[in-house]
Amino acid sequence: MAEQLPIKEGLFTWPAEKPQLLGSRCRNCGEYAFPAQPDCRSCSGQDTEIVELGDRGTLWTWTIQSFMPKTPYASDESPETFRPYGVGYVEMPGGLRVETRLHENTPEELRIGMPMQLVIEPFRTDASGNQLMTFSFKAAGEAH
Ligand SMILES: [Zn+2]
Q1: In the predicted model, what is the mean pLDDT of residues 71-97?
Q2: Strand duo 131-139 + 4-6: pairing
Q3: 9 Cα to the center of ligand 1, angstroms
Q4: What is the 3-state secondary structure (H, E, C) of 55-124?
Q5: How far apart are CA 100 and CA 90, in angstroms?
Q6: What spacing in Å lies between the alpha carbon of 28 and ligand 1's midpoint?
Q7: Residue extents of the structural domains in the chain
Q8: Dmax over Cα atoms in the chain, in whole Å?
Q9: Where does residue 40 rank: exposed (0-12), middle (13-18), buried (19+ CB within 10 A)?
Q10: Among 3, 29, 78, 110, which has the minimal tally of Cβ within 10 Å of its Cβ?
């Protein structure tokens, strides 16, 4: 039976009613990382723990990806079906900035500092028919 599987383990809680982004936090100096890292970038300590980063942040910076990225961009899209999308950094409550795809795809919809909400959605279908799920962010409060 086809399932919805995370595209990569450990990026977000899944399956979950209210998915959270997962990262790591250094027990020594408190530095956060996403994706989770076994070593701390800040103090080189190796005592890190997996933590939930939350599902909301604010838009720190963004751009519009207007052409199809080169491999290993493995979606179901072709250059003919590709549609531009936003990419940006969302600052999470701990201060960590997470690089993410954005739902919004025109400059008019995006503003630095706007509140953003985590979304888990299908990215592509694998050979067994499973839906591979990835994360992105959309403007918080936007109608679905
Ligand atoms: Zn550290």
Answers
A1: 86
A2: parallel
A3: 23
A4: CEEEEEEEEEECCCCCCCCCCCCCCCCCCCEEEEEEECCCCCEEEEEECCCCHHHCCCCCEEEEEEEEEE
A5: 7
A6: 5
A7: 4-139
A8: 49
A9: buried
A10: 78
Q: What is residue 72's predicted lDDT score, i.e. its pLDDT? A: 67
Q: Which residues pair with 50 in a beta bridge?
A: 24
pLDDT of 18 strictly over 90: yes
- Which residues pair with residue 59 across a beta bridge? 90
Distance 38 CA to ligand 1 centre (A): 10
State the distance from the centre of ligand 1 to the C-alpha of 44, rounded, in angstroms. 6
Residue with tokens 């250094």: 26
Q: How many CB atoms lie within 10 A of CB 52?
A: 14
- Give the distance (Å) from ligand 1 centre to CA of residue 75: 35
Residues 55, 64: Cα–Cα separation, whole Å: 22
